[in-house]
Specification:
Layout: H1 17-34, E1 37-38, E2 41-42, H2 43-69, H3 76-101, H4 112-123, H5 139-163, H6 188-203, H7 207-234, H8 236-245, H9 266-275
Antiparallel strand pairs: 1-2
Helix pairs in contact: 2-3, 3-5, 4-7, 5-6, 6-7, 7-8
Length: 276
Protein backbone atom coordinates (compact mmCIF):
# COMPACT_ATOMS: atom_id res chain seq x y z
CA UNK A 1 0.00 0.00 0.00
CA UNK A 2 1.07 3.57 -0.55
CA UNK A 3 0.83 4.37 3.13
CA UNK A 4 3.30 1.59 4.00
CA UNK A 5 6.12 3.42 2.25
CA UNK A 6 5.65 6.60 4.30
CA UNK A 7 7.95 7.02 7.30
CA UNK A 8 7.45 9.45 10.15
CA UNK A 9 10.25 11.15 12.02
CA UNK A 10 10.07 12.68 15.45
CA UNK A 11 7.25 12.46 18.00
CA UNK A 12 3.65 12.33 16.77
CA UNK A 13 1.91 15.70 16.53
CA UNK A 14 -1.09 16.32 18.74
CA UNK A 15 -4.42 16.57 16.99
CA UNK A 16 -5.33 20.19 16.31
CA UNK A 17 -1.79 21.42 17.01
CA UNK A 18 -1.56 23.04 13.58
CA UNK A 19 -4.73 25.16 13.85
CA UNK A 20 -3.85 26.09 17.43
CA UNK A 21 -0.40 27.32 16.40
CA UNK A 22 -1.95 29.25 13.53
CA UNK A 23 -4.41 30.97 15.86
CA UNK A 24 -1.62 31.71 18.35
CA UNK A 25 0.39 33.35 15.59
CA UNK A 26 -2.62 35.38 14.47
CA UNK A 27 -3.43 36.35 18.06
CA UNK A 28 0.01 37.92 18.40
CA UNK A 29 -0.83 40.38 15.63
CA UNK A 30 -3.30 42.53 17.63
CA UNK A 31 -0.88 42.59 20.56
CA UNK A 32 1.94 43.78 18.30
CA UNK A 33 -0.30 46.36 16.64
CA UNK A 34 -1.48 47.68 20.02
CA UNK A 35 2.05 48.93 20.62
CA UNK A 36 1.99 51.07 17.48
CA UNK A 37 0.20 54.38 17.47
CA UNK A 38 -1.31 56.65 14.87
CA UNK A 39 -1.37 59.93 16.74
CA UNK A 40 -3.06 59.31 20.12
CA UNK A 41 -4.79 56.12 18.94
CA UNK A 42 -3.38 52.59 18.95
CA UNK A 43 -3.20 51.06 15.50
CA UNK A 44 -4.68 47.88 16.93
CA UNK A 45 -7.89 49.84 17.48
CA UNK A 46 -7.97 51.49 14.08
CA UNK A 47 -7.91 48.51 11.75
CA UNK A 48 -11.05 46.75 13.15
CA UNK A 49 -12.78 50.14 13.20
CA UNK A 50 -11.91 50.53 9.52
CA UNK A 51 -13.24 47.04 8.72
CA UNK A 52 -16.59 47.83 10.34
CA UNK A 53 -16.69 51.36 8.91
CA UNK A 54 -16.66 50.17 5.28
CA UNK A 55 -20.06 48.39 5.31
CA UNK A 56 -21.44 51.11 7.58
CA UNK A 57 -20.65 53.85 5.05
CA UNK A 58 -22.08 51.77 2.21
CA UNK A 59 -25.31 51.16 4.13
CA UNK A 60 -25.54 54.83 5.07
CA UNK A 61 -25.24 55.89 1.44
CA UNK A 62 -27.91 53.41 0.36
CA UNK A 63 -30.19 54.48 3.23
CA UNK A 64 -29.86 58.19 2.38
CA UNK A 65 -30.63 57.46 -1.26
CA UNK A 66 -33.77 55.52 -0.32
CA UNK A 67 -34.80 58.25 2.12
CA UNK A 68 -34.45 60.95 -0.54
CA UNK A 69 -36.61 58.99 -2.97
CA UNK A 70 -39.22 58.16 -0.34
CA UNK A 71 -42.47 59.97 -1.04
CA UNK A 72 -45.92 60.31 0.43
CA UNK A 73 -46.99 57.17 -1.39
CA UNK A 74 -44.25 55.05 0.17
CA UNK A 75 -45.67 51.86 1.66
CA UNK A 76 -45.56 50.92 5.31
CA UNK A 77 -43.22 48.10 4.34
CA UNK A 78 -40.69 50.54 2.86
CA UNK A 79 -40.85 52.88 5.85
CA UNK A 80 -40.32 49.91 8.16
CA UNK A 81 -37.22 48.89 6.20
CA UNK A 82 -35.89 52.45 6.44
CA UNK A 83 -36.37 52.41 10.20
CA UNK A 84 -34.59 49.07 10.56
CA UNK A 85 -31.68 50.30 8.47
CA UNK A 86 -31.45 53.52 10.49
CA UNK A 87 -30.98 51.79 13.85
CA UNK A 88 -28.60 49.25 12.30
CA UNK A 89 -26.42 52.03 10.90
CA UNK A 90 -26.47 53.78 14.27
CA UNK A 91 -25.45 50.53 15.97
CA UNK A 92 -22.54 50.01 13.55
CA UNK A 93 -21.44 53.63 13.95
CA UNK A 94 -21.21 53.20 17.73
CA UNK A 95 -19.22 49.99 17.22
CA UNK A 96 -16.74 51.85 15.00
CA UNK A 97 -16.28 54.61 17.58
CA UNK A 98 -15.84 52.13 20.43
CA UNK A 99 -13.21 50.22 18.47
CA UNK A 100 -11.20 53.43 18.21
CA UNK A 101 -11.41 54.41 21.88
CA UNK A 102 -11.47 51.00 23.60
CA UNK A 103 -9.04 50.15 26.38
CA UNK A 104 -6.29 47.53 26.05
CA UNK A 105 -6.85 43.91 27.05
CA UNK A 106 -6.38 43.04 30.70
CA UNK A 107 -5.01 39.57 31.27
CA UNK A 108 -4.59 37.02 28.53
CA UNK A 109 -6.10 37.18 25.08
CA UNK A 110 -8.81 34.91 23.72
CA UNK A 111 -7.89 31.44 22.53
CA UNK A 112 -8.87 29.87 19.20
CA UNK A 113 -12.19 28.46 20.46
CA UNK A 114 -13.27 31.72 22.06
CA UNK A 115 -12.24 33.74 19.03
CA UNK A 116 -14.08 31.56 16.54
CA UNK A 117 -17.21 31.40 18.71
CA UNK A 118 -17.28 35.20 19.08
CA UNK A 119 -16.74 35.87 15.38
CA UNK A 120 -19.36 33.30 14.35
CA UNK A 121 -21.91 34.73 16.79
CA UNK A 122 -21.20 38.27 15.57
CA UNK A 123 -21.88 37.59 11.90
CA UNK A 124 -24.10 34.49 11.80
CA UNK A 125 -27.51 36.17 11.66
CA UNK A 126 -26.39 38.20 8.64
CA UNK A 127 -26.95 35.02 6.64
CA UNK A 128 -30.68 35.37 7.31
CA UNK A 129 -30.65 38.41 5.04
CA UNK A 130 -30.16 36.12 2.05
CA UNK A 131 -33.40 34.27 2.79
CA UNK A 132 -36.59 35.55 1.10
CA UNK A 133 -39.18 37.53 3.01
CA UNK A 134 -42.60 35.85 3.14
CA UNK A 135 -44.63 37.18 0.21
CA UNK A 136 -48.03 36.90 1.89
CA UNK A 137 -46.88 38.51 5.15
CA UNK A 138 -49.58 40.83 6.55
CA UNK A 139 -48.64 44.44 7.11
CA UNK A 140 -49.34 44.10 10.83
CA UNK A 141 -46.86 41.22 11.09
CA UNK A 142 -44.20 43.22 9.27
CA UNK A 143 -44.76 46.21 11.56
CA UNK A 144 -44.54 43.93 14.60
CA UNK A 145 -41.30 42.47 13.25
CA UNK A 146 -39.90 45.97 12.77
CA UNK A 147 -40.79 46.99 16.32
CA UNK A 148 -39.10 43.87 17.71
CA UNK A 149 -35.95 44.38 15.62
CA UNK A 150 -35.74 48.10 16.41
CA UNK A 151 -36.45 47.54 20.10
CA UNK A 152 -33.84 44.81 20.39
CA UNK A 153 -31.26 46.88 18.53
CA UNK A 154 -31.88 49.86 20.81
CA UNK A 155 -31.37 47.65 23.89
CA UNK A 156 -28.10 46.38 22.41
CA UNK A 157 -27.12 49.95 21.55
CA UNK A 158 -27.78 51.05 25.13
CA UNK A 159 -25.52 48.27 26.35
CA UNK A 160 -22.77 49.29 23.93
CA UNK A 161 -22.87 52.95 24.94
CA UNK A 162 -22.67 52.09 28.65
CA UNK A 163 -19.93 49.52 27.99
CA UNK A 164 -17.85 52.30 26.45
CA UNK A 165 -14.10 51.73 26.39
CA UNK A 166 -14.53 48.19 27.77
CA UNK A 167 -16.06 47.10 24.45
CA UNK A 168 -14.66 44.11 22.60
CA UNK A 169 -15.85 41.30 20.33
CA UNK A 170 -13.57 38.54 21.56
CA UNK A 171 -14.01 37.07 25.07
CA UNK A 172 -11.37 39.25 26.71
CA UNK A 173 -11.43 41.52 29.76
CA UNK A 174 -11.01 45.25 29.21
CA UNK A 175 -12.82 46.42 32.36
CA UNK A 176 -15.83 45.66 34.54
CA UNK A 177 -19.05 47.62 33.95
CA UNK A 178 -21.95 47.23 36.39
CA UNK A 179 -24.07 50.34 35.75
CA UNK A 180 -26.94 51.05 33.38
CA UNK A 181 -28.49 47.89 31.91
CA UNK A 182 -25.63 45.91 33.46
CA UNK A 183 -27.30 46.55 36.81
CA UNK A 184 -29.90 43.89 35.94
CA UNK A 185 -28.20 41.55 33.44
CA UNK A 186 -24.57 40.79 32.70
CA UNK A 187 -24.96 40.69 28.90
CA UNK A 188 -27.53 43.29 27.77
CA UNK A 189 -25.99 43.61 24.31
CA UNK A 190 -26.63 39.93 23.63
CA UNK A 191 -30.15 40.24 25.05
CA UNK A 192 -30.88 42.93 22.47
CA UNK A 193 -29.38 40.86 19.67
CA UNK A 194 -31.43 37.81 20.66
CA UNK A 195 -34.61 39.90 20.65
CA UNK A 196 -33.77 41.34 17.23
CA UNK A 197 -33.27 37.81 15.93
CA UNK A 198 -36.86 36.98 16.86
CA UNK A 199 -37.99 39.78 14.56
CA UNK A 200 -36.12 38.15 11.68
CA UNK A 201 -38.01 34.92 12.24
CA UNK A 202 -41.34 36.73 11.86
CA UNK A 203 -40.58 38.05 8.37
CA UNK A 204 -38.57 35.01 7.25
CA UNK A 205 -40.49 32.02 8.65
CA UNK A 206 -38.22 29.36 7.15
CA UNK A 207 -36.64 26.27 8.64
CA UNK A 208 -33.25 27.75 7.75
CA UNK A 209 -34.03 30.88 9.80
CA UNK A 210 -34.99 28.79 12.81
CA UNK A 211 -31.84 26.71 12.41
CA UNK A 212 -29.67 29.83 12.22
CA UNK A 213 -31.32 31.26 15.30
CA UNK A 214 -30.84 28.00 17.21
CA UNK A 215 -27.13 27.96 16.38
CA UNK A 216 -26.97 31.64 17.28
CA UNK A 217 -28.46 30.89 20.72
CA UNK A 218 -25.83 28.22 21.37
CA UNK A 219 -23.00 30.48 20.22
CA UNK A 220 -24.16 33.42 22.32
CA UNK A 221 -24.52 31.26 25.41
CA UNK A 222 -21.04 29.83 24.89
CA UNK A 223 -19.77 33.36 24.35
CA UNK A 224 -21.20 34.51 27.69
CA UNK A 225 -19.51 31.62 29.49
CA UNK A 226 -16.13 32.41 27.92
CA UNK A 227 -16.44 36.14 28.63
CA UNK A 228 -17.36 35.52 32.25
CA UNK A 229 -14.35 33.24 32.67
CA UNK A 230 -12.10 36.01 31.33
CA UNK A 231 -13.63 38.61 33.65
CA UNK A 232 -13.45 36.28 36.65
CA UNK A 233 -9.72 35.80 36.09
CA UNK A 234 -9.06 39.55 36.09
CA UNK A 235 -11.67 40.62 38.69
CA UNK A 236 -12.11 37.50 40.88
CA UNK A 237 -13.76 39.13 43.90
CA UNK A 238 -15.70 41.95 42.22
CA UNK A 239 -17.05 39.75 39.46
CA UNK A 240 -18.09 36.99 41.84
CA UNK A 241 -20.14 39.49 43.85
CA UNK A 242 -21.59 41.02 40.68
CA UNK A 243 -22.54 37.61 39.34
CA UNK A 244 -24.37 36.67 42.52
CA UNK A 245 -26.75 39.62 42.27
CA UNK A 246 -27.42 39.61 38.50
CA UNK A 247 -28.62 37.19 35.84
CA UNK A 248 -26.75 36.43 32.65
CA UNK A 249 -29.52 37.22 30.15
CA UNK A 250 -32.57 37.67 32.38
CA UNK A 251 -32.87 39.79 35.54
CA UNK A 252 -32.58 37.85 38.75
CA UNK A 253 -35.62 38.86 40.78
CA UNK A 254 -35.44 37.91 44.42
CA UNK A 255 -38.65 37.80 46.43
CA UNK A 256 -38.17 39.14 49.88
CA UNK A 257 -40.97 38.73 52.44
CA UNK A 258 -42.21 41.98 53.85
CA UNK A 259 -40.98 42.44 57.37
CA UNK A 260 -43.28 43.84 60.00
CA UNK A 261 -42.24 46.93 61.86
CA UNK A 262 -40.81 45.64 65.14
CA UNK A 263 -40.70 49.04 66.78
CA UNK A 264 -43.06 49.34 69.80
CA UNK A 265 -46.28 51.26 69.26
CA UNK A 266 -45.53 53.38 72.31
CA UNK A 267 -42.93 55.26 70.28
CA UNK A 268 -45.62 56.68 67.99
CA UNK A 269 -47.76 57.54 70.98
CA UNK A 270 -44.97 59.38 72.72
CA UNK A 271 -44.24 61.37 69.56
CA UNK A 272 -47.88 62.37 69.34
CA UNK A 273 -47.84 63.47 72.93
CA UNK A 274 -44.80 65.65 72.38
CA UNK A 275 -46.36 67.31 69.35
CA UNK A 276 -49.58 68.16 71.13
Amino acid sequence: MLGAAVETTGPPRAAGAGPTRLWTALARVPGALDGRRVGPTRFGNLWPAYVFALPSVARLGRWLDNLVHARAGTSVHQWAVLMQEMVTILFLAVVVVLFVVRSPVLGRRAGPVGGLVALAATFLLNLAGFLPVAEDLPTAAFVASTLVIVGGTLVALWGLVVLGRCFGILPEARGLVTRGPYTWVRHPVYVGELVSGLGLIVVRPHVATLALYGVFLVLQYTRTVLEEEALARVFPDDYAAYRRRTGALLPRWRWRPRQRDSRPAVVAVSRGERSS
